[in-house]
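Homework-ish question, so no full write-ups if that breaks the rules, but can someone show me the predicted structure for this set?
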Amino acid sequence: MESHNFSWKNIRFVPVVHNRMEFAVEVRRQFEEFRPDGVAVEFPPTLKDQVLRAVKRLPLLSVVYYQEGDGTLAYLVIEPTDGQVEALRLALEKDIPVHFIDRDTEGYPANRYSLPDPYAVTRIGHYAYCEAYFRIFKDRDPPPKDRLREKSMAFHLQRLSREGRRTLFVCGLTHFPGVLKMLREPQAEVIGRRSREGVGLAHLHRESSREVLTEMPFLAAEYERFRSRKDASSIDRIRIQGLLIEQARERHLRKNREELNPAQLKLLYTFARKYALLTGHLAPDFYQLVVAARGCADDEFAYEVWDKGNEYPWQTDQPDLPVIRLRGEDLFLDQKRIRFHRRLRTLRRRLVPLPGKKRPRERVPGEWKKAFQGLYICSYPPEDVLVEGYGRHLQKRALEIKSEENSRIVPFTCSMFEGIDIRQTVREWLKGDIYVREAMPFRGKVGSVVVIFDPDLPDKEGKEAFPWRVTWLGEHEQESDMAFYSTPAGEVMDGPGISRCQYGGFMLTYPPLRVYDIWKDSFFDMARNKPERLLMAAIDYSLEKHVVYVAPDPPSGRCRSLAAKLGKKIVYMPIGSFSPVTLKKIRVFHVLEGHHVRRYAGHFIPTP
Amino acid sequence: MEKMTIDGVEIQLSQPDEVPMRWVGREELVTQVLAAWMVLGEDDLPLNPRLVGKPGVGKTTLAYYAGRLLGKPVYLFQATMDTRPEDLILTPVISDEKKIKYMASSIVSAMVKGGIAIIDEGNRMSEKSWASLAPLMDRRRYVESVVAGIKIKAHPGFRLCTTMNDDASTFELPEYIHSRLQPRIFIDFPERDEELMILRDNLPYADRGILEYVVDFLQAAHGAGEPYSVRDGINIASYALKRLACNGGGASPGEQDRKLGPYMKEAASMILDSTAAEYFGMLMDEENGKP
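A: Not a homework solution, just the prediction itself:
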């Protein structure tokens, strides 16, 4: 462990970068090592009562607020990952005195010092980090307000030293060189405000915690868990980010039935790391992590990362204090906006510290799910149009493929046919012949369409990911009949009476109003699984010769022989040859509880 | 024209592009592109970012600007539905002496010179064409010219990126191409202050009031989910200013202000549609205190 430390007489200094977890961890370590008689912090005594109340409330988040002389409201968010807060918590736990030794200063400018990434502390150690800062800034001439503050802190430290107390002093890194310099000479007490009226304490609103916390709430929560574990020896930011990604990945799989592959994950970490390095950081911040998640997967996954990263489980809705809502602007935080273009709802949200635009939410979690009966269900028409259009697109693609198979390259004789084939002409250049491409007409049309996203073969215990089997008839003459298997309606809710589902596979056949429920029709009982049943139904109901089958695997011999018996042909196209972006759009659909839901569904479902 | 011999085959290289494109605001997007292109060691490979967004949000400008920041020659390749695989690599042409000459595409020129290749509107290109670039975008880092019968290796400094429109009017790219065009960098409509900065940069001679009108219009359009972009805004303001210069050049400032409204409306109607023009009219009436 680190042996160096900063001391002056019986005072141990722990310079910190405010609100950064690595420094809070260092405060814990030095507290254990030094075992002080008291703790001094860089907070003014005028805020002592409320700050201590806020510290005692942790892990609940609080804000100390007061009004300055010019009417400006000042807010101090008490964050668990702050070194000073950690020192106060430890002092309260050990029942030793705390000293608030800063000077109450009004109109303090919002300083923005550029500091190396605090994550460096975990690699080079706290002492080397502060030493490097000290070397560069030791001769810094502080602004007058800082000078008075540092003088005031030095005076109190000299007083505490004279009293013979072993004191752990936690202060901001930027004040550390100044205070140390002032300690060389005896200091007199600085005149300043000794009391302040109207200092209040409020509970930070859940929505605000995601906006104003310096560290992402998920990290702050992990820190809380770390400090409450007796056996925990270390905590690492990058490992926590990995945990966040892992949990977001699990939730993404559960909610969206999409699994991130290892290549995507590798890309995510590579990109996030490079992004961080380019901005002068060793570890990516929350914003960079979400951008990387979006870049390597999609908006849905990025949203899960963002949502999970904003989780701070202790922020109760029924606190014992008045609730305050803060925006980043109130604290002069540098913010970036991010907009999620999700399939369920377009959100405009900010990232750490980024606020969010409101979206319809349940008053009580699970309210919509509980109310969903699923007795009178119907589809959402814009999605019907989308899937119908995609079906037509697949029919067209099948025709193109068949036509391409039928084309040939021949030497030019009397017709140019579809034009010169430059490759063959150049290849045979020495012969001096010109080659042209001749497309042979494709006979027959394409009827039913089957798309299998996931064959969903039951596992050993017979569990299925897409157990809901439905046959829907077209509502008008422009719409096909449809049979599909999907995630169950009522599992994921996007609004009142609006359930979000995901297809495992579907079949479309035109004209409408012909299909008997294929899942009950005994004619298809020879099918061994859901894809086979869909394909057999498609073959049987197709009025045209060709049936399109888009799936990860080719059709089974059983289906091929059924097609041959019925005089049909299966045009198989691997699903990998289609755009994953389009497939994702098609795959999600909404089930509405009754036709009346269609009137307001647009408020909860974006235009597909 | 610069020539180069690869495996005994002489190819003629194309010139890099020098265009006055400047990216304004949203520095984090530039950082994202540069991060994707960054290489951390000998074994590391640059990524091939895919810049996605609505038409007119500045995808090409961003890619070009980021490329120039690296101080490398930038080559733009405009992809179309007719782009064939050989167009992306080497095109054989018949010279005066009836011999075959091989012309390198912008992409191959960037590859051998260690420059930046930007495939603009990559989603308009067919899967077949993209397939010819597949080995270039993985560890192999080469392309194969069937017509010339050679393999062309990319210079270590070579970087690639593509821009794609976020609409349905495009070819579908299969998974194996998608996975090579990563990460996806999404370019959204800019915020109000950034949009104003872009307009000011593109129309330095325009009065601030005009730009404010245009920004108000664009922000309302973004809010309503309309696809109007800052490019449309620049065109509207530019056209209205040209009309004013033609017909109201010598008029007093008050007279110019009075004329500008109808010109803006006309510009919105010609560049966008009648609904946009109507909204512009309402916006200006509101500003002038008319009911």
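Now go work out the reasoning yourself. Hint: The two ends of chain B are 64 Å apart (CA to CA).
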